[in-house]
Amino acid sequence: MIGRARIGRGGLIGTAARTAVIAGTATATTGAMARHQQRRAYEQQAEYQAQQAAPQPVYAEPVQAAPAPEQVEAAPAGGGDDLYAQLQQLGQLHAQGILSDEEFAQAKAKILG
């Protein structure tokens, strides 16, 4: 009997086998894509955290030249706010290291009278 040669699997079993192969391939592809997306999300998150942890540049205000203690004039007797502002400015100059302890004391004494 000369019949038709069967190529591949036909019928219900062949269809089920092809479906299983296609479904397995789709599942593997979907899993690979999900892992790739998770890895990229993790890398982006790690990069963001690294940027947040890195020290931010600090921009210092320009330092003005400090007046010599002799140039600081005493405030008028009634100028409470001006007196306070001058003492505050002296304190800042001293804290920045522009005025030494001795210069600060001399300038403060001149302001206070």
Descriptive keywords:
rod-shaped; mainly alpha; 3 helices; 113 residues
Structural class: mainly alpha
Give a count of the beta strands, DSSP E runs of length 2 or more. 0
Q: In this structure, how is the largest beta sheet organized?
A: none
Note the gap between the termini: 130 Å
Q: Report helical residue fraction.
A: 55-70%
Shape, per Cα inertia axes: rod-shaped
Task: Give an overview in words.
The chain has about 110 residues and is mostly helical. The chain folds into two domains: about 10-55; about 70-110, no CATH class. Helix content is about 65%, strand content about 0%. The protein is built from three helices and no strands. It has helices at about 10-55, 80-95, 100-110. Helix 2 (about 80-95) packs antiparallel against helix 3 (about 100-110). The mean pLDDT is about 75.
Q: Mind sketching the topology for me?
A:
Blueprint: H1 11-53, H2 80-95, H3 101-112
Would you summarize the structure shown here?
Helix content is 63%, strand content 0%. The radius of gyration is 41 Å and the shape is rod-shaped.
